[in-house]
Each structure stands twice: as structure tokens, then as C-alpha cells.
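SAMPLE LOG
Freezer: B-3
Tube label: C17
Construct: single chain, 118 aa
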Amino acid sequence: MPNMKDIQKQAADLMGFTQKSVGKIQARKDFFSLVDAVGTTCSAFEITDHDKPVAVLMSYQHYVLLVAKICMLTKIQLKTPPPNLIGSIKIKTENLESASERISAKFAKSLKNTASKL
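STRUCTURE (predicted):
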């Protein structure tokens, strides 16, 4: 399994920018220069708090590119046809009305149980 550094490098290569890390206190002090840097140098800044990543500062252009790539990947995955559920439920009864009422009651009970657990 790849480690986080490898994933970050691959993501930066895919997006076409260099990634740098900066602490949140330093980012607060240098905010305007960081904003200028992401727009002009094709870089992104990982903002950390006690050496743990908490945010990313990237250019709007790279953000739009990232969202577009996610949308494209989502559309590719959605092209798989939905499963055919026709015939997947069989009711063994002659009285469909009573079977429907039993199913509705079970569904309502399930919803109530789920809501009480939330």
C-alpha cells in the first residue's frame, strides 16, 4: 500500500503543481504572499497544525481542474448500468393487500428504530 507521501506526490504530478508545506502560524503571517504564489508559481501549500495537515491553499484554476477531474471520474463510474431489481422480491401470498400492509408496517418499524438510534 502506498504511503501518504507517495500519494501526495502522485496527486501533485497529476494536477501539475508543486506542493509545499507551511505551518498555520506562518501561513497567517505570509497569507498574502502565499495567495500570490499559488496564482503565479503553480504551487499548492499544505497548511499544517503541529505537523498534521489541516488545509490546502491552491489556485482557483487548480481547484476548478480538480473538481472537473472528479466529475469526469464520477461520470465514468456512473456509466455502469444500475442493477435490475425486477423480480428480486417475491411475495408468497394470495392477498397482496395484506402483504403490502405487513411490508409497510415492517418498513415503518425499521425507520422508527433507525431514527431512535440516531
